[in-house]
Amino acid sequence: MLFLRRTLPLIIAFAVGLIGILVFYIPHSGAQSLEYELTKWDRIVAAFALALGIYSLMRLHWGRVRRQQAGWAYSFLVFVGFTVMFIFAIYNDGHGPFNPQVADSGPFVWMFNNVQVPADATMFSILAFFIASAAYRTFRARTPEAAILLVSAIIVMIGRVPIGGLISDSIPELSQWLMAVPNLAAKRGILLGVSLGIVATSLRIIFGIERSYLGGGEE
Amino acid sequence: MSRDHIIFIVFLFIFATINIYLFGSGNLSADWTGFGTFIAAGITLSLYSFLYKDNPLFKFAENLYVGVAAAYTLNQIWYTVLLADVVNPLSELEENLSNLWLIVPTLLGLFMLTQLSSAKFSWLSRIAFAFVVGLGAGLAIPRTIAANVLAQLEPTMQPIAATWVGLDLFIILVGVVTVLVYFFYSVEHTGPVGVASKIGIWFLMISFGASFGYTIMARLSLLIGRVGFLLEDWLVLPLPLF
Amino acid sequence: MKEFLLNIDRRIIFIFVALGVIIPALTSFNLPINPTPNVQSIYDTIEEVGKENGTVLISFDYGPGSMPEVQPMALSVLRHCFKRNVKVVGMCLWPQGVGLAQQAFDTTSKELDAEYGSDYVFLGFKTGFQSVVVSMGHDFHGTFPQDLPGNNTTELPVTKNIKGLADFDYVLCLAAGNTPDGIWIPFGQERYKFKFGLGCTAVMAPDQFPYLQSGQMNGMMGGLAGAAEYETLVQASGTATEGMRPQSVVHLIIIFFIILGNVMYFLYGRPKGGTQ
């Protein structure tokens, strides 16, 4: 049983990982078909993974409702939103769940446009107020490094909007140069570091050193 | 009655009055489109009430949204992936027997769902995770090296001429090297290494400043979008007024 | 007064930000918008594709949370494509992108009489991020056997001759996450060497400059300013161009507060406590 629970997953990760690397370097049609087939499988498994994520979220809220924890009525609202939208999804503007999705009309699209879109867009826009307040409170030129950061931010903020060009032509140019030269250099340095990190972590996964994806427990 | 209750009632009263006017004057049509704009405006303002303080109106809109968004995603998974790529091909096996292979990823997917079941079966999910994580790692290694390492090193190390472009290339080279030195912790940052790492910090600070400026810009754009909706779509103001 | 300026209540700043957005939105004053080379490059590429009567793939990888920034790009690019008879194939790596892409196609196709199937096709969403891109590279029809409304992609005029990613004359990613640098470039562009352009949120834009210099990306529209530049190029002023007025004013307000905070800090030292 230990073999099935621990060794088999490690063998599978090693095998498909190695295949994933090798087929990149083998232009033979057989290798390319294998890569296509594996990625097709992966796309389907990913759909279940996403569904699992949604199930997990709903289970969390269901737990709150069942235990009547503080604020459980809000968790109940999650179910109200989910159920209404789910029914409209199945209804599919009169075509039912086994026909292609109707994406341009019907109550499902109405809910998306008038509930999901305003809520999601507004949620992120609230941050505009907090980021403005935080900029005033924390953006202080306490050290030379902080001063560089502050000056860079101010140049970019003026240079990227039309008012910068009205003040002076050189502000947008300076802003563009900051982005395309020093910013690029720093971002490339970070990118190289992160990429090597990704390669190292991927190798650790393939060789079974990194096993956190197997979850807790040794069984 | 607390101050917050009074604010809440006044807010609802103003919102209701404006909408009665909008529907009454025909600015909002008395159909699903008009009703949708009314609901969208209500949700937008409920969420903005958070700026005053956290309150039930905000939580109401927030939680309703979470449920709707979850079902929206589930809908997309069903119609364009599970129905189109699994259910339909498996129901057409007589025409195309090779579709039988689809049973493998379907089983792996079902294994994944055992993650939240009892311990007796949950180990099956490890097989599915091993497949996804292993394949992801394998596909990523050669492509990350090619696209994010080699393709990035090449333009960093170009011949440098005594021109403005050449100077920029030189600055980029210095920046990339010094930033890498800064992140290289295996050597003590003293002497020349210390100087290089200090220069690396300056590059990083310029880049963090730029990112901060751009982040402020992004958040404001979202706010501008919502204010535009409230003024133009809900209040139906003929912008610009002045 | 000193204490007040050292520690202005956040709600006062909130009011300034709100007024900085609302008042310029209500008023009219013109600000010149000059397209940057990165945006111009996307425009020029679509012009070239139009001359060859080619096909563009647009990946709508964003959701309503970034809609005010990215949706104006989608609308402007689609208008440009339809005006130049560039065929468009739309798809999504993000599920929330489906509704927004559909809206953009509906609006622009009605405006410019673009016909579904012969001028544009919308494929919808697929799970799997990198696996979708890798399999599209190998077999486009196998990855998307049907479009969103259920037509066979082997039969639609726009998609019937597309065998893989390499057959697209241009791939444009409209993104609010890591799909350009994390998915499209390493898993698609790196192997198939198609021309690749990006429209993204301002938050992402600074991270993309290394790819512009390396040529892996041939152009970029960053944030609302990038969208406004594209609107200027296609001569169709929209929400992004209008948004540049409040955007400019609030930037000045925030810079004023940052400078005020620093002046007070250097004159009177650290503030004592306070709320964020």
List the helices and strands and how they pair.
The complex is a heterotrimer of chains A (219), B (242) and C (276).
Chain A: H1 2-25, H2 29-67, H3 72-91, H4 107-125, H5 127-138, H6 144-159, H7 162-167, H8 170-206
Chain B: H1 3-24, H2 32-48, H3 56-91, H4 103-113, H5 119-122, H6 124-156, H7 164-183, H8 191-234
Chain C: H1 2-6, H2 10-26, H3 37-51, E1 55-61, H4 67-83, E2 87-92, H5 97-112, E3 120-125, H6 130-138, H7 140-143, E4 170-175, H8 179-192, E5 196-200, H9 205-214, E6 219-222, H10 223-233, H11 239-268
Parallel strand pairs in C: 1-2, 1-4, 2-3, 4-5, 5-6
Helix pairs in contact in C: 2-11, 4-5, 4-10, 6-8, 10-11
Q: State the oligomer.
A: heterotrimer
CA radius of gyration of chain A is: 26 Å
Q: Count the helices of chain B. How many?
A: 8
Main sheet of chain B?
A: none
Total DSSP E strands of chain A: 0
Task: Determine the mean pLDDT of chain B.
Answer: 94
Count of DSSP E strands of chain B? 0
Instruction: Indicate the overall shape of chain B.
Output: extended
Distance between the termini of chain B: 41 Å
Counted by DSSP, the helix tally of chain A is 8
**Mean pLDDT, all residues of chain A:** 94
The tally of structural domains of chain B comes to 3
Percentage of helical residues of chain A? over 70%
As a whole number of angstroms, the C-alpha radius of gyration of chain B is 29 Å
Helix and strand pattern of chain B: HHHHHHHH
Strand content of chain A: under 5%
Query: What is the strand content of chain B?
Result: under 5%
Q: Which structural class do you get from the secondary structure elements of chain A?
A: mainly alpha
**Share of helical residues of chain B:** over 70%
